[in-house]
Amino acid sequence: MDPKANVVIADDDPDTLRILGHTLGAAGYRTLLARNAREALRMVDEEEAHLVLTDLIMPGMDGMELTREIKRRRPEVVVMLITAYASIETAVEAMRAGAFDYITKPVILDELQVKVEKALEQYRMREELGDLKVRLSRSQAPPNLIGVGAKMRQVFQMVSLVAGRDVPVVLTGESGTGKELVARSIHSMSRRSPKPFVPINCGAVPETLLESELFGYAKGAFTGAAAAKRGLFEEANGGTLFLDEVGDAPLSIQMKLLRTLQDGEVRRLGSTQSVQTDVRILVATNKNLQAEIAAGRFREDLYYRLNVVGIHLPALRERREDIPLLVDHFIRLHRASINPAVQGITPEAQSKLVRYDWPGNVRELENTLKRALVLCRADTITAEEVVHLGAEVAEPETFVADGKGYGAALERFSRTYFIDALERHRGNVKKAAEEAGLSRKSVYEHLKRLDVDPAAFRRRA
Is residue 83 a contact partner of residue 66, using CB atoms and an 8 Å limit? Predict the structure, then answer.
C-alpha cells in the first residue's frame, strides 16, 4: 500500500473516529480526522484527499449532503458512507448522491479495509484515465477519433495527410471498427467540409434500388417515376460521397461507378443527358478486394481507380490500450439519455472489457456500455452489469497459430503474454519481469517494441 493514500474520516463520535483512524493508519494509509462535515470539506479542499469516509448522521450537514458537496468540488475523490440504518433506499440514495459504497455499523474492521482498497482502486483508475486523456490531447487526433496506441496514431497521421488531398481513399477493416467515422473526419478536415457528406451502404440496398439511389432517374424512367429524382452523386455535389461496403456492390453498378469516376458526370436512369458532378469518393469495405477481384466479384479497373490511398483500421482487440478511453467516452456520450446517475465504471468491470476480444469491435463496445447503463442501479457500472461477455473474458486470450509466419505468430504471442501479465500485476513491470524470468530492462524493450504502455494497466494511489 502506498503510504501517500490520504483518507479523510468524518464522524461526530470521537471513539469511532479514533478506532477507524487507528485501523487505517496501521494499514499504511495517511488518515485525516474530521469531527463534522465542515472540517471534512476543509480537508478535501486543502489536502490531496483520495477517499472520504463519512458517517451518514451528523449534526448540521449530514453525510449525504457532504457527499454531494464533495462531488461538486472534487468529482475525482471517492466517497463511502458509514450508516447504522442500512436499507435498499439508503443505498440507492447514497449512490445517486455520488457515493462509491457504504459500510454498516458496527463496522467490521476487516471488511472496512477490503472496501477501502476497492474504493482506492476506483480513484487509481480515474487518475489513470486522466493520464490517458492528456496523452490523447497530445496525440493530435482528428475530430471524434479516439486512441493513444501506435496503430491509431498511424491512422491519425494518414487521415491528416489525405484530408487535404482531393483523392479517393479506401478504408479497410472489420465491421464495427469505425470506418464511417474516419470517413467523416476526412471530410470535416478537407476543403469540402462546408458541402454535404453523403453516406450509403452498398450492401444494404437491393441492386435495382441502388442504381437509382446513386445516379437518380428521369421522369417516366419506370412505372411510378412520376417525377425526376436526383441521385446521391448529385446530392453530394461539391462534397463527399461515402460508399460503405463497396465490395458488396453488384458488377453492373461497379461498371457505372467506374464510368462516373472517369468522366466526372452521371447519367440518370432513363435519361439521355449527362450531369457534371464534382464529388470526392471515399469507400469502405470489410472484404479483401484483391481476393474479390480474383474471384470475379470486383472489377480490377475500379479497384485501381479507387485505391489511390488505403487506410486500414485495426480491430479493437489489437488496440486494447484504447479501451479505457473509449469506455469513458461512451459513458459520457450516452448517460444523459439513459442513466444520468452513472459517473464511471469499477476496475473489475473495466478489466473485463479490456480482456474481451470484441468480435463486433467498437460498435459492440458501445452497445455493451449502453446496455450496462440501462442495467446499472448505482453511480458506477460493475462487472455484473457487463452481463453478455460471460466466460469469454474469464481466461487470458488463447494463443493459436494462424499461418501468418513464425515472426508474426511470435509477436502476437508476445503481445498477448505481456498484456495479460501487466493486467494481472496492474502495470507493475518489476513483478511482470519476475514472473517471466526476465530482467526489467528486457521487459521494457519488449514493451517498447510491441508499443504496449504499462501505464495503461497501472492504477496508482
Answer: no
